[in-house]
Amino acid sequence: MMLPGFPDAAPLAGLGGGILIGLAAALMLLGAGRIAGVSGIASRALGISDSGMSKSSAWMFIIGLPLGAFIVAVWSGGLDAKFAGTGALIAAGLLVGIGTRLGSGCTSGHGVCGVSRLSQRSVVATVTFMAAGIATVAIMNAMGLEVLQ
Amino acid sequence: MIARYLPPLLSGTLFGGGLALGGMTNPARVRGFLDIFGNWDPTLAFVMGGAVIVMAIAWRIQARLAHPLFAPKFALPTRTDLTPKLIGGSALFGIGWGVAGLCPGPAVAALVIEPASAATFVAAMIAGMGIVRLIEKD
Q1: Neighbours of A21 (CB within 10 A)
Q2: Are the C-beta atoms of residues A134 and B34 closer than 8 Å to each other?
Q3: Which residues of B touch A119 (CB under 8 A)?
Q4: Distances from the Cα of B118 to the Cα of A81, A90, B64, B100, B114, angstroms
Q5: Nearest residue on chain A to B55, judged by CA atoms?
Q6: Residue B50 CB-density burial (10 A; 0-12 exposed, 13-18 middle, 19+ buried)
Q7: Between the CA atoms of A134, A147, A6 and B40, what dihedral angle is there, to the nearest 10 degrees?
Q8: Do A99 and B49 touch (CB under 8 A)?
Q9: Quick one: which of A59, A112, B33, B76 has the most CB atoms within 10 Å?
Q10: Per-residue confidence in pLDDT tens, chain A, 149 aa
Q11: Using CA atoms, how far apart are residues A28 and A14, in angstroms rounded to an integer?
């Protein structure tokens, strides 16, 4: 299905993917009683965070992420992906790592789990990282910086 | 053993599959969403919307449960304070998200799609997380 005015958008695949993510987070909440926040679970798996689910559970969740993507990639006959160059990846990775620990969460924990709970902290965090992301892309485009290869 | 490891593995797998299906493992699509002043790609709004709707229902169910299905009790965030750390950290995260079009979940999931690029980002992300840990320990 195409969205009028947005020929590149994939609204149905997006909605389907979003529902799967919601079900994943619901399983974590109703099954394990915890938030499916990837930055928190990743730092728990690596021992960077001491609180949260057991280390083994954290690793199971983290291993599941590429496993699920692999299943979809095989099922759909390959996925398009255009990544930034090494320098941009390193700079961005550092910022994302530092920012998500200081901000106690990322797109999954704050953006999906917290916003759907109407958590004040998560709504403020989500508005902040969305605004920062939009401003960053706008400034980079205005400067003619093309990072994707 | 199976009852203990299967729920988080299944949750992670559904999560990674959803990210891939929704196009979030492609940084070009994520940056396209953030590019609201240019050639805007609204796909991520559908991903976020679908996930938030399902989770809003899950929170209604959670409110009626005495304890989770496979654990003795709920362990959920209780803080409500808005701090400079929360806002500053989220801003730094957003800048990084905008630069490369990657956040933690899609970056880890993309390890099987574009291994070298995803691993570069994930290694830097882990380093960033470690830096915060070192600073906060002092």
Answers
A1: 32
A2: yes
A3: 77, 80
A4: 11, 10, 40, 11, 6
A5: A22
A6: buried
A7: 20
A8: no
A9: A112
A10: 678 889 999 999 999 999 999 999 999 999 999 999 999 999 999 999 988 899 999 999 999 999 999 999 999 998 999 999 999 999 999 999 999 999 999 999 999 999 999 999 999 999 999 999 999 999 999 999 999 98
A11: 21
Sequence-ordered list of residues with C-beta below 8 angstroms from that of B35, at least 6 positions apart, any chain: A134, A137, A138, A141, B41
Contact A99 B96 (CB under 8 A): yes
Q: Which two tokens stand for residue B73?
A: 């009790």
ipTM: 0.97
Q: CB B15 to CB A107 under 8 A?
A: no
Query: What residue type is assigned to position B121 of the chain?
Result: F
- Using only C-alpha atoms, chain B has a radius of gyration, in whole angstroms, of 18
What are the tokens at A62?
């983290």
**Within an 8 Å CB–CB cutoff, is residue B105 touching chain A?**
yes
